[in-house]
Amino acid sequence: MLTIAIPVEQGHLNAHYGHSKSFEIVQVDPEARKIVSRQTVAAQKHEQCAALAIWLKGYQVQCVLCGGLGQGAKSSLQQQGIEVISGAPSLEISQLLESYLSGTLIAGNGLCDHDHGPHQHDHGQCGQKAEPRSLVKEA
């Protein structure tokens, strides 16, 4: 079983991991490529990247599938043993999971290295620093 966390905004992948107010926690059977369970949970309020990573680890999350995130957030997740797959498009969560499980989801690196300040914006440019890659690893 694999537990994946996806930052959610209005039923779609939230373009910025750290600004998400809720996460979809999904258990999948990677061999059968099927969803076993899904739940949406309100994100813990956090001041630092590490707090959110520790909170996700409490849900036994092994992988975060996200759009953009900063290096600090990525490092915090990795320190908790959580794999980070970033640069995914802001698809509806069911579409995103279907693409992920079928091996057709493509994304860049999704690392953000610029100041976001207190504003809303699309992270379409953040994932364009690396060549796109398939998000499903071949067995």
Compact summary:
The chain is an alpha/beta fold and 139 residues long. The protein has helices spanning 49-57, 71-79, 93-102, and strands spanning 2-9, 12-13, 22-29, 34-42, 63-65, 69-70, 83-85, 106-107, 111-112, 133-134.
Protein model, in words:
The protein has helices at 49-57, 71-79, 93-102; strands at 2-9, 12-13, 22-29, 34-42, 63-65, 69-70, 83-85, 106-107, 111-112, 133-134. With 139 residues, it is of the alpha/beta class. Strands 1, 2, 3, 4, 5 and 7 form a six-stranded mixed sheet that branches. Strands 6-9 form a two-stranded parallel sheet. The radius of gyration is 14 Å and the shape is globular. It starts with a strand and ends in a 5-residue tail after the last strand. Mean pLDDT is 79; it is low at 112-139.
Counted by DSSP, the helix tally is 3
Q: What's the average pLDDT? A: 79
In terms of quaternary structure, the protein is: single chain
Q: Gap between N and C termini, in Å?
A: 14 Å
Uncertain regions spanning at least 5 consecutive residues: 112-139
Share of β-strand residues: 25-35%
- Largest sheet descriptor: 6 strands, mixed
